[in-house]
Amino acid sequence: MLLLIVAAFFVLVNGRVILAPLLLAVVVVYILNPFVTWLHKRGLPRVVGALLGFLVFFSAITLLAILLLPDIVAQAQAFVETFPALYDNSVQQVYDLTESLGFSSVSIWNYDQIVDYLNDPQNRSTLVDVSLGFLGSVTAGIFEFILVFLVGPVLAFYFLIDLPSVQQRLVEIFPEDRRTEAAYVGRQVNTALGGFLRGQLVVAFIVGIMLSVGYRIIGLEFWLLIGLIGGLLNIVPFLGPWVGGALGVLVAVSTGDVSTAIWAVVVAVVVQQIDNNFVSPTVLRATVRLHPTVTLLALVLGGAFAGIWGVIIAVPLTATLKILLGHWWRTRFLGQSWEEASEAMFEEPEPSRILKTGEIPIIKGKKSGSDDDA
Predict the structure, then answer these.
(1) How many CB atoms lie within 10 A of CB 37?
(2) Rounded to the nearest 10 degrees, what angle do helices 111-119 and 46-100 cross at?
(3) DSSP per residue over 264-302, as a string?
(4) Closest CA to 330 of 315, 347, 316, 343
(5) For 2-53, how does the pLDDT look when each residue is reduced to its tens digit (9 = 90+)?
(6) Which of 58, 96, 153, 231 shows the greatest Cβ crowding within 10 Å of its Cβ?
(7) Distance (Å, rounded) from C-alpha 91 to C-alpha 97?
(8) Do 191 and 362 form a contact (C-beta atoms < 8 A)?
(9) What per-residue string of b and e applies to 211-233 under the rule 16 or more CB within 10 Å gives b?
C-alpha cells in the first residue's frame, strides 16, 4: 500500500498535464452517469445514452453562456476601463489606513508610476525577461486549457460507455473471497465522490446566483463577475465562502462608497448563512467526518503538489483515503462489521451546522450492486 501511494504521488507530480482533463472527465461522468444509466435500464444502448447525455449537458452550458456572456463581456470591458481609477482609489485607502495606524512611511506606487516604470527604456531588459517568462506561462496555460476541453470530454465519453465493465473488472482484481467487501467499499467511495461533485456544483451554482442577485440589488459595480467568481470558488472549501464577499467589499471600498461596502458585507454574510443552514445541508446530506485542520492541510499539500487542480481534488481524495484506510483499520484491527465501520466515519449533519469544512457526502447503507452509485 505504501509503495502504491508513493507511486501515485510520483505520477501525480510528473504527470500533472493529464490531471486536469482526467479531473474534468471524472466530473462529467459523475454528472451524466445517472442519466445514462436511467436510459440504459429502459433499453437504450449506453453509447446512445452517452451521446444524448452529452447533447443535453453541452446544450445547457451553451444556453447559460448565451444568457450570461453579454453581461460578462460588458462588465469585463467596464472593469478594464475603470481599473486605473479603482487601483488609485485602493492605494489611497491603504495610505489612509496606514496613516491612521501610525505607519506613515509606507510607499505604494500609483497607476501612473507603474506606467512610467514600464515605459522607461532603462527597464526594458528586465521587462523582456519577465515578459518571456510570462509568455511561457501563458502558452502553457493555453495548451493546458485546450488539452482539458478537448481530451476531457473524449475520456468522459469512453468512461460513460464502459463504466459497468470497468467496475466489474476492478472488482475482479481482488481475491474471490474479498470481492463482496471490495464492491461494498467501492460503492461507498463511488457514492461519496459522486455526491460531493454533484452537490458542490449545485451549491456553487446557487451561491453564485444569490451573490450576483444580492450585489445587483445593492448597486455594486461588476456584480455579475464578482458573483460568478464567488460561486465558482465555492467549490473549494475554505477558499470559496469568503472570496465573493471579499471581492465585493474591495470593489465597494475602492470606489469610496462606504455604505455599499457595508451592504456588500451584509449580502456575503446572508448568502453564507443561507448556504450553511439550508442549501448545503439539503444538497450534501450525510458527510465524511474530516476535521477542519485535516482539510486545510490537505488543501495546502494538494496545492503544493499540483497547483489549483491539486487544491480541487485534495478534499475528495483525502475523504477517499479515509474511507479505504478507515474501513481496513476498523474491520481488521478493531473487529468491527462493515456497517459499524461506516457509521463510525459518516454522520448526518444538523440543518444548522456549518458545512464549510471540506466534508464529503455519502449515502449510507446502500449495498445493491447497480452502477447508479457512480
Answers:
(1) 21
(2) 110
(3) HHHHHHHHHHHIIIIIHHHHH-SEE---HHHHHHHHHHH
(4) 343
(5) 777 677 767 766 666 677 788 888 889 988 998 999 999 999 999 999 999 9
(6) 231
(7) 10
(8) yes
(9) bbebbeebebbbbbbbbbbbbbb
